[in-house]
Amino acid sequence: xxxxxxxxxxxxxxxxxxxxxxxxxxxxxxxxxxxxxxxxxxxxxxxxxxxxxxxxxxxxxxxx
Length: 64
Hints:
This protein is an alpha+beta fold. The protein has one helix at about 5-15; strands at about 20-25, 30-35, 45-50, 55-60.
């Protein structure tokens, strides 16, 4: 997913019923947000870092 435009992420999330929750800036010139499906009740999520233009990094997390 790195290199994907942030606008493309919003469209992709909308097509797959994934919610995006913005987080505060990370202090390194980037921004973070959480992507999750309501169907997983928050157990499966993805932390996405971006520079307000393109995705820099994404990390999958789960709480099972």
